[in-house]
Records
---
Amino acid sequence: MKRNLGRWLYLFLLSPLLLFSATDYAYNLHLNKRSAYLNEPILLTFKVWQTDPKKIIFFEFEPVAHSSDWKMRLLQERRDMERGAITFEYLLFPQKVGDLLLSFNFIVKRTDEERLRHNNTGEPVKAKAIDTTDTHEVLPPLHLHINPLPKDVALVGDYKLNVSVDKHETEVNAPIYLNILLEGVGALPKDLNITPKIEGVKVFDDEPKINLRYETDGLHYRGSFSYALLSDQNFTIPAITIEGFSYKKGQTYQLQSQPISIHVQGVTIQKLVDSTSSESIYDQLEAMKQWLIYCLIFVSGYISALIVQRIRRVRFSKKEEDDSFQQAVKSADSAKALLKVLLKDHSNHYAIWIDQLEQAVYCGEKVDLKKMKREILKG
C-alpha cells in the first residue's frame, strides 16, 4: 500500500497539470510537455472559471518570461459566458537551453450588481468599462528543461521540400522558371539561403510567398520561392540541401533535391528566315519585321495583364487588411485590447487615442470605449 501511495505521489509531482480552487474561482494550468528541444513548440493551456455563480468576476492571464528565453504566441481565448469560464491557449518556443522558469500574470477582477448599475451606459458589460476590484493572484511558476539540438539546423520540426521547373529545354534569351516549395510543421525556419548561384546564368527572383498559421501542434509553414533563370548555354541547377531536426523522432534529417539539367538551343537567322524560300530578301525582312511587331504586342499585353493583376492584388490586400483592422477594433472588448490593436501597425495614425487608452490602462482613467471605437472607424 505504501509503495502504491509513493508511486501516485511521484506521478502527481511530475504532472504538467496544476489544479487550484479559491473561494470564488478555480483553474487548471497545463503544459503538453515539460521537457523539449530548443525552439520546439510547447502548448500552454490555462482554464479558469468562477465557482460562485452569484458573483461577477472577470479574468486576465498571460505568461511572463524573459524575452531572450521565449517566443510566445496567443492562439485563442475561448469564453463561456454562461459558466463564467475562459480558456487561454499559448504556443511557446523556447530560445534558450537549460532549466527555464515560466511565470504568469493573472488578474481577477471582481464587481457586483450595484457597481454594474452605476456604470451601465447601455453598451455590453466590459471588464475595463466598469468599476472592478482587481487582484493580482500568484500562480506557481513552472520549470521546464530545454535540451540543445544535436547540431545547428535551419529547420526544427517535420518539413518537406519540392523543387520543379516549367521545362527542361529552352532557347537563348528564353527563361526557365524554377519553383522551390518548402512546407512543414514546427518552428519558423531560419538562415534559409536557397537562391541558386549558377555560373553564366542570370537569376531573377520574385517576392517569396510565405504563409504562416499557428495551431496547437506548432507553426504551419508554407513558403514558395520563384526564380527566372536566363542563359545562352546549357546549365545545371544544383541540388538544394537543407538540414532539419525532427523533435518527434529525436533525430536530424536532410532535405535534398536532385540536380536539374537544362538544355539551351541557339537561335539563328536561319531559324527565323527560310533559306529555301523563293521570296526576295526584302519580303523576308518585312516578314521578320511583322513577326517582331507581333512579339512586341504580345509581350506588351502580357506585361499589362501582370500589372493589372498586381494592382488588383494590392487593392484586395489593402481592403482585406482594412476589413481585418475594422473587425479587430469592433471586437476589442477592453481598453487594453483596443490599445494592442492600435499599437500593432497603426501607432502613428492613432496616436491621440493611444495616449487616452494608455492613461486608462495604466493610470485608471475612464474612457468612453464605444465612442472612441466609432471615432477610430470613421478615421
---
Amino acid sequence: MHRQYFPRCPVDGPIEPAVPYEYEGTRGAVPMKCSECPHLYGSACTRAMPLIHHSLHLDHGACEIEGPTEPVSLENEFLRAKVDVPEKCATCIFLGVSLVEGFYCTKDVDKWGDLHQGLDWGTWRPARIDLQLPSPKVTTRELTNFAYEANLVAFVKELRRVNPNVSVTEARDDFYHLRDMIESFLVRSEDAT
C-alpha cells in the first residue's frame, strides 16, 4: 500500500483551505498546495512517474489522530491479500476502502468529498521504493532488490527469466537505468531528512 505514497512529496505548502475540484464526474476538493501544482492530474499526483511509472496519492498532510505509523499487515475476511497500512489506521473507524484506490481515510470526507484523503504515514519511510521498468516489461520485486544490491548478474538472469525476449545487452542497460533511478531517489531522500 505504501507504494502509492512514496517517494514523499518534496513540496512544502499549505494543505488548507481545501480547493474545490471536479474531475470526470467526481467532486470534492484537493489540498491547496496540490491545486497549484503542475503534477496534479485527475485526483492523483504524477511527480514520480519517471521513477515509478504510476501516480501517487495527493499529500493531505498529517492526520490529527495520534499513533504509530509503521506499516502493519491488514488482513480480514473481506481481503484476499495482506495489505500494509500505517499501524494507527489499521483499527481506525475512519479507514475506508475502494476497489480503485485501495485504502483511504474517511475522517474528513465532508471536506474532501469523492477525492479521498490518503493515509498518514507520519515520519516512516520505506527503505526501498518499488521501481518499475517501462511497460510492457515485467518488473518483479527480486529485480528491484538486485538493482538496489547492485547485483548485475542476478538482475540480468531474473530480467531475462520474466521477460524472455530481452537481450543481455538490453537487460544490462535496464540495470543501469534502475541504478540511476535508485541513486536519484537516495539523493532526494537524504535531502528530505
---
Amino acid sequence: MKIALIITALFASVVLAAFSVFPSRLCFSGGKNYTFYCGTSSADCREVVAAFNPEAEKLLLKDVCGESAEYENFDLGSYLEKVNGKVMFTETLSDSVNYYCSADLPYSVNLYGETINLHVCVRGNVAKVASPIIFGGY
C-alpha cells in the first residue's frame, strides 16, 4: 500500500513537472486548421497541421518557429485589442488584404525594418492568422 502511494505521488510529480517544463500554450484559440511551422528559418520551414489536439501535438514537435489558425467571421479590430496588436503595414492583393502587426505573441521576424509577430490575411469574412507570419502561402 505504501509503495503504491509513493509510486502514485512520483508519477503525479513527473506529470506536473512535464507540464511546467514543456508548456503547450498555443498562440491562437478557437480556430480551425491549426498549423505549426517547424524549422530554424523560413528557408527550411515545414508545415505540420494538427490532426486532433494542437496542445498535445505541439509537445511532440521540435523547432517550432510559428503557428497559425483560420477563423470565419473574423473581426480584425477586436482581435488586435485582444492581443495588444498594432498594424505596422498592409499589403492589398486582388483577393485579400494582409496585415503585418506587432502584438503580444512569442515569435517574430524582421520585415522592412519592423519587428512583425502577427500576420493576418483576410479574404472576405475568413482570415488566417499566424505568428510570426504565414509561411507557405494562403
